[in-house]
Amino acid sequence: MKQAAFGTRLKSLMFREFYLGRKDLIASLVMSVLMIVMAFLLKLSFEYGNLAKLSAENLEIVEENLQVYICYLPAFAMSVAGTMISTSAARDEIGLWHRFRCSTPAAPQIYALAKYACLLLVILTGMVLSIGYFALIGWMDGNGIQPEYIAVMIAMQLLFTSGSVLMQVMTMVFRSMDKAGIFVTGVGFCAAIPFVYTATVRAETEDPIDFQKIEEFCVSVLPLTPLLLLVVIGIGFLVTWALLKRREK
């Protein structure tokens, strides 16, 4: 029996990934739209609504507190879309889907490539949409796209992608999404301890950590974070390929 071409098999498996992760993608899209609508309502309120009636001092305080929401939460919602790869990993360990993978004449590297090609496509789409949103916000403010917006967005994407890839790999290792979730939660908790400790110590000094300092840090590591993002995706692909190849044997 003649096998389909490499491109045909890859496209078919990518369609499968998107099909399995469609609920997460739709939920992320809906959440992004809702947050964008809320952000625009807040912006309009600052210009023409009730918030514009506040005194200059109170308006500055309110705007400073809400600026993080307006700028970053829609991009945050778009970054969550990459978790679809964890959903497909969980499906692969269910009996029927596991049989499908074992009986389908597709090499392990094609399965792994389909998963991470979908992940990369979702990430790039989310970044483009986020940059478009930042451009619109910058146009409304008259400031253009600020570098800290891009830096924080890529840093958020790096964190979410790292968690998603780890969840994918651990789900395959444990053959259980619940066990993988406990493991990833534990890793995240341990990774957060140094940051929480540092923030607590500095909160007691005259130089506490605020969001502006986080923005400055993200800008300072901006040349490195896109590279780290590609490295995480590449490592995930290689590990997933190795696990699929081992299961096949």
Describe the structure.
Helix 3 runs parallel beside helix 7 and helix 7 runs antiparallel to helix 8. The protein contains ten helices and no strands. It starts with 5 loop residues before the first helix and ends with a helix. The chain is an all-alpha fold and 249 residues long.
- By secondary-structure content and strand pairing, the structural class works out as mainly alpha
Helix content: over 70%
Main β-sheet: number of strands, strand sense, barrel status?
Answer: none
| Oligomer category | single chain
**Ranges with pLDDT <50 over ≥5 residues?**
none
Rg measurement, Å: 21 Å
- Beta-strand share of residues: under 5%
Overall pLDDT confidence: 77
Helix segment tally: 10
Number of strands: 0
Identify the notable features of this structure and list them briefly.
about 85% helix, mainly alpha, about 250 residues
